[in-house]
Amino acid sequence: MAKKYRVKCPQCGEIINLADSGACSKCGTMIDVNMPACVELYRMGNMMGAATGYGIYINDVPFGAIGNRESLCFPLPYGEYKMHIVCGMSRKCNDPVIKLTAEDPHVCLKVHMKMGFVQNSFILERVDPSTMPD
Ligand SMILES: [Zn+2]
């Protein structure tokens, strides 16, 4: 399966999916997906709320949603990013902070929901790229 890039248009702020570098579907700005670093996110399949997208936040900026068993690639400049996932009333997340550097430019994360007594929470785990689905 081809990679799906999820980007935020620097011009108009629209959240869009791209298969490769291309124009923003809203304002036409050219968006380059070949950034120095990227985060890949895979949502592990689960029965609970399978039909509902999980909201994605990177440094508190909303980046759309991820569907059940979907994987997305976020091209990003080097830097530190706090990853946060929410879904409906479930707003607890382990909020890992990842560092994208020249030595470590490609971080793969899997997210799954942990059932809780009071509320569910999201666990984001860094995984080896070889364990990511193609
Ligand atoms: Zn745009």
Structure description:
The strands form four sheets. Strands 8-5-12-13-10 form a five-stranded mixed β-sheet, with no helix packed on it. It has a four-stranded antiparallel β-sheet with strand order 7-6-9-11, with no helix packed on it. The protein is mainly β and 134 residues long. Helix content is 0%, strand content 49%. It contains no helices and 13 strands. It has one domain: Immunoglobulin-like, CATH 2.60.40. The N and C termini lie close together (6 Å). The relative contact order is 0.21. The mean pLDDT is 93. Residues 9, 11-12, 14, 24, 26-27, 29 line the site of zinc ion.
Give the CA-CA distance, first to last residue: 6 Å
Based on helices, strands and strand pairing, what is the structural class? mainly beta
Residues in helices, as a percent range? under 10%
Unreliable spans: none
CATH architecture: Sandwich
Bound molecules: zinc ion
Please describe the structure with a list of short key phrases separated by commas or semicolons.
134 residues; mainly beta; Immunoglobulin-like; five-stranded mixed β-sheet; four-stranded antiparallel β-sheet; 13 strands; binds zinc ion
